Each structure stands twice: as C-alpha cells, then as structure tokens.
C-alpha cells in the first residue's frame, strides 16, 4: 500500500512510494541479469552434431533466445520507467506537502521576528555560522580589492586610459565602497577578470518564508552587479512581513557579448554545478537558521535562465523556477524527461516580453544540439510542458513592455513583470500571459465596504 | 523610457516625501529599507538611473482599512494611477505617476506594511 485510507479519502505515503520504487529497482536488476544471460546464450551450428538440420535448429534456438531477451529487455525498461515515476511522485508529494503547509502557515498570525528585525539568522549580528565567517572573510577581500582598484584607476587616469575602462573602475570602486559602508553580506567574492560575486540580501531567520536566488545573464560583471543587487533589494523591501530574502548570484564567468559568446553553452555548463552546490549550501543555511519549510525560488534572467535550467538537470534543490527573458531551459533539456526525478513537483514559470530578440535563442538550436554542437540552450521555457507562462505587462508609465529594451526593463520595480517576479517568490497570485492587467483600484474586488476580509 | 536630464535629486525628494506621507498614514516608526540610486538597465550601467526608496512599518494600525479608505483616494486625487495587485497574503496597491512608481504592501496577517518605489529613469 502506498496510500492509507482516511475519513476523507486516501493519504499518500511517500515513504511507501520510495520503498516500492526500491523493490521494483531490485526486481528490474534481477530481470536485467536474466535478460543479459539469455541474450548471451548462443549455440554453435554443430551443437546437435552433424545431423541434418542441426544448423537450422541452432539458428532457431538463437532466434528464440534473442526474442525472449528482447521481451525481457522491454519489461526491464517498463519496470525502470515505473520506478522512476514512483520516485518522482514521492518527491512531488513531499514538495507539495511542504508547499501547502507553508501556504497555510502564511495565512496564520505570524510569529514575531527575532529582535524586531535584527535577526540572529544567517548574516545577522549574532550569527557565528559558516556564512558569517564567509561574510567576514569576503569583507577583507573587498577592502583589498578596493585598494587595488583605486591604484588601477589612478594608473588609468595618469596614462590616458580608455574612457570605458575608467568608468568600469569607478563603478567597481563605488560597489566596493558601498559594500563596506553598509556591511553588505557578500557570500562569494573574487575580483579577478570580470569578477565573481554573490550577495545575500535580507536575512535567513526563524520566520523567513521565501528565498529567491537570482542569476543574471550576458554581460554580467562586477562593475554592473549592483544593478541586479538593486532588484534583490527592491524584492526584499516589498515584503510587508519582512520574511523574504534574496541571493543575487553572479559567482561565475558570464558571456560578454550577445552574438559572439551568449549562444555558447560552455558558460552555463560551467556555472550550473557551482549554482547547484551553492543552492545545496543555501538549503543547509536555511535549515539551520530558518527551518525546513522555506520556499526557495531560482530566477534565471536571460543567459542566467540557461544556467538555472542546467542546474535543474543536476537536481537543483528549489521549489520554484522562474525564467525571465530566458535563453532556454538549458543545453540538452528538451522535455521534462531530460530532468532528474528530483525535479518532479518543481513549479516552473516563464515570462518573455513580446519581440524581445531573446526569442531567437529560445528553443531554436535543436539541430545544432542534436549534431553535438555546444551552441544552444535547449527548449523554449515559455512552451516547456508544465510551465506557467506569465505576463510581462506594462512599465510604470503604463506602456507595454516589448522589444529589445524590455529585455532588462522587466526587472525594473513598478512594472507588471517585477510584480510577477515578486509574486512567484512570495507565493502570491501571478498574472498569467494573456490575462488582462488590472486597471483601476478595486478591480479585484476589495475596495468596497464588504471586502476588507483578512482571509478570502 | 524618459531620457531627459531631469534632476534626479528633485525626483528623489518628491518620491521620498510621498512615500513618507503614505507611511505616516499607517502610524509612526517607519524604517527605511532601501534608499539609493539604481541603474535602470543593469547591462548598461550609468546610462539611465533612478532613485529607489522604501520603508517598512512593523506595527501598523488598521492598515487594510487605512489603505482603502484614506491612502488610495488621496493618491488618486493627487493624480496617481492606482492598480490593485492584491492576493491572499497581501493587499497590494501599485501606484504610478509620470513614470514614478511605488507599491504599498499590506500583510493581511497584520504583520506589517512595506512601501517601496522608484523615480522615473533619467540620464545622470
């Protein structure tokens, strides 16, 4: 029994699903052994002596055993398919249990945050955990990098450096100064080359509901990282209960050029294992500082979508995935069957503004990938089975987001797209693609005298 | 996207005043959550920037009723377009005017009010 009868129906027992899957796996292994034994049975033509018809008898024997082996092989495949499905179902039920529990809990009165928002969670003042040490170490690295970058800028100014190099140096210095001045929680830092960095915004503490991991895309560098960090700050600041945290993860080498480098999957293939490992570490920090019922959402923007997709292929431990103007589901990922059973139950969302040229990358490199090329980023996230496609809507002016400019404008606070990003992270009500954007306060029906309900 | 050279300081001052005024409707003790310049297009830093500002109140008084009965009518009178993005967890009023925007998030659980917004994008 993988389910137990209750007064209202049946309760699925994921542990039993796992157990049955394991038993099926054992049976499949035994059958596979028998299948290979039968498949290996061969008789020489003279097995029945020199009698007439001996060769024909041997051929008939071989044909029979081959047929049996083929049928056994198909049975083994079917058993393994059922086993995979059961494992995925168990993972999906567990994830759903967690999600439903979190939703109910969110509707209940909140427990107070520790020390009125001055938490002892990861990054908090009283934290002595692994990330506290990491943040302290990276603060020293940033201070060193600031000294180095100031010398670099002085050299550029003294020797007539390129204007763009000077501007980049100044932006790096501004970032380093801001990190040090505001005690920003830097989890990863390496100033070499274009730089690598990951920042925690907000806190992981008892009461934290939602954590987003934002992965930016092409042209990401240290000198423009703060624009993405600003998105993270706005998302954290919007939560009235103060229970959302964000990580802006740029701990990788990003392509620097839409045409020359962005089509190459090499960057995402290199980043994906690091993102997977980081998210595992994040889960550990969440478990030790905030509990186990926190919803984690991975958000991949542009090329970052391909990185998130490939990390899913490695078993990225998240509850939701959001592709924003994404390059694709990840190199080689063309169907849900290309993802491991651990990803069963992951809720996936995608948004792409109309006429954003990124559509040229989405799902259009199938032949190249099939031929073994490193170019391409897998399937189109907007049409991938099971994905909820979201509306990008309008900006704060009320203008429809579309075209090339929309590629990054969708990240701007005040837009419908930003609101959808926030809703995915916090488990709010998303606006699907094609649904009309609400116009006028009260369209959703709470402005009238009887609509100030605390819980619908 | 606006690309004129409007003074960002003036826009920031206006937005800050509006957000602080809205926050005061819910009570005292609003704490800043974000405050500073933001690149409108992260991939092209320095080209267009806006000012981002936000506050949060941990113990608002009658926040849902005040949002609907006081804040929204006043903002609409002042020319702000107010859009409803509420869900089961939060009342959310998204307000925009001349490219500036802010959202008022009221937790239905009563856990707090957050207001966060940004000016229109301008060339620095």
TrEMBL record, chain A:
UniProt cross-references to InterPro entries, sorted A to Z: DUF1023 (IPR010427)
Protein's UniProt name: Alpha/beta hydrolase
Keywords: Hydrolase
Pfam family, one: Abhydrolase_8
Chain segments carrying region Disordered: 433-456
Native organism taxonomy: Bacteria, Bacillati, Actinomycetota, Actinomycetes, Pseudonocardiales
All copies of domain DUF1023, residue ranges: 190-358
Molecular function GO terms recorded: hydrolase activity
Domain of life (superkingdom): Bacteria
UniProtKB/TrEMBL annotation, chain B:
Domain of life according to the entry: Bacteria
Annotated protein name in UniProt: Uncharacterized protein
